[in-house]
Specification:
With 53 residues, this protein is mainly α. It has one domain. The protein is 89% helix and 0% strand. The N and C termini lie far apart (56 Å).
Length: 53
């Protein structure tokens, strides 16, 4: 927790704003990873469907 406080202080923002920004960034990164995984699954599924047709 002290490291988080120190990082917020170094960025000259409140702890609340610092944590909010970190959470939003992580959520955005997670959303991109899920979308990429879904794209890969759809691509492979389409390929398998073509083989089975």
């Amino acid at each position: 927790m002290e490291q988080i406080r120190a990082a917020a202080k170094q960025d000259d923002v409140s702890l609340k704003k610092f944590v909010h920004a970190a959470v939003m960034q992580r959520a955005s990164m997670h959303k991109r990873r899920v979308a990429e995984a879904a794209r890969v699954v759809a691509e492979r599924s389409a390929e398998l469907n073509r083989r089975l047709a």
